[in-house]
Amino acid sequence: MTDTGGDHLNRTTKKVSDWQELLRTVSLRAEDNGFLNTYILGELGSRVHCHTLWSGIDIIANDVWDKDLRPPVIHMGHFITLNYCISGRCEGKIVGSDRYVYVGGGMVCIDNHGQKEGYHYPSGRFEGVEFVFDTNVLRREMPEALTDIGFSLGRIEEILAENNGTFLAATTDEMNALVATVYGKLRDADTAPAELKYYAIRLIYELMIMGHIKANPLTFVTRGQREIATEVEKLITEDLSKRYSVSELAERYGISDSTLKKYFRLVFGENISDYLMARRMNEAKKLLVGTTMDIGEIAESVGYINQGKFGKAFRNCTGVTPLEYRRQRYRTAGSAT
After folding, report:
1. Would strands 213-215 and 221-222 be described as parallel, antiparallel, or unpaired?
2. Is there a smaller number of Cβ atoms within 10 Å at the N or the C end of the chain?
3. Structural domains in the chain plus CATH codes
4. Amino acid 333: pLDDT
5. Nearest-10 crossing angle of helices 322-336, 272-290
6. How far apart are CA 315 and CA 281, in angstroms?
7. Distance between CA 38 and CA 23 in Å, rounded?
8. Residue 3's CB: how many other CB atoms inside 10 A?
9. pTM listed for this prediction
10. Residues 65-70, mean pLDDT to the nearest whole number
11. Residue 302, SS3?
């Protein structure tokens, strides 16, 4: 494996696509894994695993751990992306407006890239598979494997023209399972170029030819609604030992409880209570494995005065008690060494 600075990846070893050239310029570092290139971005080490399927078409596994990835503002108008979300949430700002749309799990987004200011992931986690089509290349020559299944760049452009450049749709359970398989193979470099082409043809055929998508009407979030939701998220997660009622939070902004719940769900894709519960339990897991704090201390640090209620909540989330979870992780760590 070659680990280099972003500006030097494969400079003398192999040609990469124009899209990967853009990634290279903004990555902290990059790894050459043979037929895969992995670009590391952001403060928390988000990873973008790329493979060029054919000239003009890349397939990518996005393994994001940052809330914000903000490359320099660039115009990418000759690219079209087809982005499947497995989990997490990605925010898109409508160009020329103060409105936002969100892609969540079980959704696909087709986008013609105008000017971009960066990418925002409200929960700080996103997993998905993305196709990048370079229209400059594909107008000259479309891969025979795709023309054989009736794929047309013109059809994608029609969809985008009908939807002002951004199209969102729900995917089927069958497609979701296929996307998850492709994601795992790219992330773990557990595949080969021929296999990736096979999966790519299946995904594109199912989506574009068979029409296995259900169009979602775009739900727009205004800048003000987004600011309220993100400020609330920051407040309730920056110190998990504190608890706030929805009424208390809503009163801060002069809105109703139901309105606050709506704003939060639009941005983060979950109810406030479910989102916060997941954060509390994830933090508890880290403390159980990474510290020697006793169970009562951990319970208090994630917002539970009553250790029994914490234990019940933790068991409902993980299937084991906090002590069992700690013991299991210690045994696993011991056997690894």
Report:
1. unpaired
2. C
3. 2-215 (2.60.120.10), 223-336 (1.10.10.60)
4. 57
5. 50
6. 10
7. 10
8. 11
9. 0.82
10. 86
11. coil
